[in-house]
Amino acid sequence: MASILTNLFDGVAYGMLLFVLACGLAVTLGLMNFVNLAHGAFAMAGGYICAVLVNNSGWPFFAALPLAFVGSAVIGVVLERTLYRHLYSRSHLDQVLFSIGLVFMSVAAVDYIMGSSRVFIKLPAALEGQIDLFGVGIGRYRLMIVVICGLLTLALQLILAKTRFGSRLRAAVDDPRAAIGLGINVPQVFAFTFAFGCGLAGLGGALSAEILGLDPYFPLKFMIYFLIVVTVGGSSSITGPFLASLLLGIADVAGKYYVPKVGPFVIYTVMIVILLWRPNGLFGRTAAR
Amino acid sequence: MTALSDVSTHAMASARWRISEVAFWVLALACAFLFPSRYLIMTDIVRLGLFALSLDLILGYAGIVSLGHAAFFGVGAYSAGLLALHGIINEPVIALVAAGLVAAVLGFLTSFLVIRGVDLTRLMVTLGIALLLEALAERFSDITGGTDGLQGIEMQPILGLFAFDMFGKTGLFYSLIVLFILFLFARRVVHSPFGLSLRAIRNNPLRAAAIGIPVNRRLIAVYTLAAFYAGIAGALFTQTTALASLDVFSFERSADLMLVLVIGGTGYLYGGLIGAVVFKMLQELFQSITPQYWLFWIGLVLVVIVMVGRARIHSWVLVVPNLVIRQFAGREAAVTVPKADAS
Amino acid sequence: MFNRRKMLLWGAASAVLPGLCASMTAWADDAVKIGLILPMTGGQASTGKQIDNAIKLYMQQKGDTVAGKKIEIILKDDAAVPDNTKRLAQELIVNDKVNFIAGFGVTPAALAAAPLATQAKIPEVVMAAGTSIITERSPYIVRTSFTLAQSSTIVGDWAVKNGIKKVATLTSDYAPGNDALTFFKQHFTAGGGEIVEEVKVPLANPDFAPFLQRMKDAKPDAMFVFVPAGQGGNFMKQYAERGLDKSGIKVIGPGDVMDDDLLNNMGDAALGAVTAHLYSAAHPSQMNKDFVAAYKKAFGNRPGFMAVSGYDGIHLIYEALKKTNGATDGDRLIEAMKGMKWESPRGPISIDPETRDIVQNIYIRKVEKVDGELYNVEFATFEAVKDSGKTKK
What we know:
The complex is a heterotrimer.
Chain A: H1 2-31, H2 39-56, H3 61-82, H4 92-114, E1 130-133, E2 136-139, H5 140-162, H6 164-174, H7 176-181, H8 186-208, H9 218-233, H10 239-258, H11 263-277
Antiparallel strand pairs in A: 1-2
Helix pairs in contact in A: 1-5, 1-8, 1-9, 1-10, 2-3, 2-4, 2-8, 2-9, 3-8, 5-6, 6-8, 9-10, 10-11
Chain B: H1 2-15, H2 19-34, H3 39-62, H4 70-85, H5 92-114, H6 119-139, H7 141-144, H8 169-191, H9 193-203, H10 205-210, H11 215-241, H12 251-264, H13 270-289, H14 294-308, H15 310-317, H16 319-329
Chain C: H1 2-23, E1 32-38, H2 45-62, E2 65-66, E3 69-77, H3 82-94, E4 100-103, H4 107-120, E5 124-126, E6 141-143, H5 148-161, E7 166-172, H6 175-190, E8 194-201, H7 209-218, E9 222-226, H8 232-241, E10 250-254, H9 260-263, E11 274-277, H10 286-299, H11 305-323, H12 330-337, E12 341-344, E13 347-351, E14 358-370, E15 373-385, H13 388-391
Parallel strand pairs in C: 1-3, 1-4, 4-5, 5-6, 7-8, 7-9, 9-10, 10-11
Antiparallel strand pairs in C: 2-3, 11-14, 12-13, 13-14, 14-15
């Protein structure tokens, strides 16, 4: 019983992590209709920023986390203003070509600057080990992930649903021309959203170094996972990707624990079945965008 | 009546062989004779070209995006490998066709999954199928050799006459002939009424259905055909390298393929071939300059291609040939770049 | 429309010709050429880089001429994909007329090149890949790295002798992992040990959590672990996170998990892990101290066992050339390499004249803190271990 709960908890933590990593992609892909395969590169950037600050400059881990967010967001906004915005109207294939190009460049550049071995972030002692909650082992680090990611999700949902910015964004997405007509600065809204998504990815990258491992090939290795989260979840809201991430995380952990021999099949089979059942994702809109 | 004859004249006109096409193939053959030390990379290019041609059939002509085309490549590769390894079919040409057919069967079966849904869904379903197959191949390692790949494949001479040699000469000419034959067939297909109906589907599935084209059946047919082509490409891979390992299914292979086709341009059959030449040459060039960081430069080229726009790059490429043409045929014959090939 | 496209064809064709010409560089000199094929990109890149670094270091130290011949290294990246390896090896042999092919990050790559070595009669020096069968695939293959049987059998024997009775295994599901598992099991169960749980982890595995939970629930005395070098760090951190270190389950295994170039970053979680391996950066010989110092100075980090394998590989090539007086006939070179003995940074090693595989000491080491840094400190030695994956034949 205890191990079931521990597994459930691990699955939730893993899913939350995937969500923070992928929700920026859900925004660019789902809301802005841009295929940004380079999303993982921003996550990697955040991870490395955090690693350098903590390991080389001696920053405390919790101070470096926000910096990972800010750093990735800044990189995101710079690239958005210089490169990405020219491509919003291009075909998806052009966007794929472009963003894969960016991934290749980021991989080689990080390899050149940081070396090709894995990087680890030194954690404060408070985050190491497990706590025992009514006989259920709960990893402290994973607990922190769940807390941070849970708060972020709530905040995101509130921003999108309740704030003025949220309604501007939804308007800009639904009908950019009408939104401009209403005096909404659509490019600015997009740039801000894009940067925010990159920042979240960066934060996710910093958090995931401990669990997924951080090396220059991060963007390529996890690109598939991000895409799965977004397609399975559907991209009309952030609730979809959130639930999809949780489902994916729990299914993956449970599959590996109970039937380790077929573990790797679980994710892909679940994805294909869901997509056949609901081609626009679990929570997608009925019509294709 | 007039409308019909219009269509057929148009179809026939575009199906006619151009001098440039003839020149392309003559040049390809000439390369095979001119650079005896580069057989291997050229074989690689030919294989990749055939593979890209296969993707062009579904992407360029039917509008189906796929990130999992390596599934069929891999099935073809393993089929050819297993056939040769266990001596089931020793003659490479027959084995090649057999491997292609196996891939085609898989293509037919999975086509029902793929024709559902929109672009992104298709992308992920195809990708998922390829990854599942990779995991399967890894799991059944007693058949596939697992991560070590199939070991000890020995190819018999083609038609019992031409043995595969170490320099890759037989391999190259074999691949080139296979590519040419399949290309001819693909050319025939896309200029047939069947091919035209595919284009109608790509441009607007709803309208195509409204004028009585059986959309789903056509898509299944072309998907199966493309799977057959990819299977042949995979089988060629195994036969010319005597290897088959898990990476034939890999996501990287499918993604590279997509890059190749997009670089070359979709929807005119030569795009895959040209893309294969350009991509491989660039890779080879950068790898010889910097074996560690060549990815960066390839990435840069991709970004530049998109930022500058393919149309503009194509027109730069055409500067020299245009000059030549003007010399001979006057201004009118000079060419510009099609706007529609980047879809 | 189509006439414009045809121009693209012209353009593409005219671009091919000069390209092919340019890449046809002629080599016409008297140098000894070594085609070094390594994964410099992709998941195995750090293996390739260590070996490349070590070879550069060696050539810096020993000069680039041997027996009057200049040594020339041609480095190629195969990204650990076997068909690349094969093509590159073939091109190196046919076009560049190399006298050696060397490197090979993974087993399939080494195997793909084997028939070429046989056909061209040139030595293939394997500097990384570690499954037993490799050297049997061609009489021209020599290995300077290790085989998994070497370290796994030793750790099996050691575990039995040291009161470990129940072991759960966690190995990556690919050829080296399966090799390690098989050989460990053989020796461990033969000595009376019991395997209580056996888990194979997929090679591309993002998260160890569920597998570790399984280990924990099986309550063994120790867990036998083999994961590829890069993943070791994540594994150890999650091992500690789950409190396995406190529940008294020790980590044992072949030394790949505790690769020196990552060890120091793993944090205290790694303390106390016992592994059997061929090399530790803490090996207490003067030669090793100099090697580690020089490597650190040149490349800024600690050399791992891959670096040593590369270092010894190039040494073997140098010495063989010395023996043949610079003659590059493949058969003579292989003859010269057989039975060669020398002192390496890892300790005394030799090439088995029968199998052309490496014979080396295997050390049992424990992770300890030395001067504030984590090291694998050797505390027992099994001398001159042959590859038991073959010797039973």
